[in-house]
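Handout, section B. The chain below has 170 residues.
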Amino acid sequence: MLNQYGEQAWERVLKRSGVPDDSFLTMRSYDDAVTYQLAHAAADELNIDVQSALKAFGVHWVEHTLPSSYETLARAAGGDMLQFLGNLNALHDRISSTFIDYLPPEFEVKHLPDGRVEVIYISTRVGLTPFVEGLLIGLSDRFEQRVDIHEINPLPVSEGEKTAFIITLS
């Protein structure tokens, strides 16, 4: 958001959210409430819905946080989007070894008979499916590989969140 809308917009979002600007220490996790507070404040500031704000956060994470904080790990995860998706769990395992209080999601990647790909997102956290959608869009841009998201289907789970994304890479 900072890069797209500027410092003043980010300051207004922080003020609206009540989240202190020093909340984002490197190599520490922060409570999901912070994410949701920021998403709601950004949605209000930009006059969009919260899901769109979370999706934009996902795109931003790939475009800015990934290259500035995790580029070496990202390069090791694969040279194209499909390789990268297949190595997401290994990437999260590496991050978990140094990231305090980190509860990584899991991803299952399945090739469907019709050529599409099913990416299943599994997390103990709730409400971040739009963020993952943004990640997929951001990865599409990173790898210069178009992705069409055909379906986003919530799957039954006793706790947390589990979502299937049906995509085509071209």
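Note. The first helix runs from residue 2 to 5. Compare this with the example in section A.
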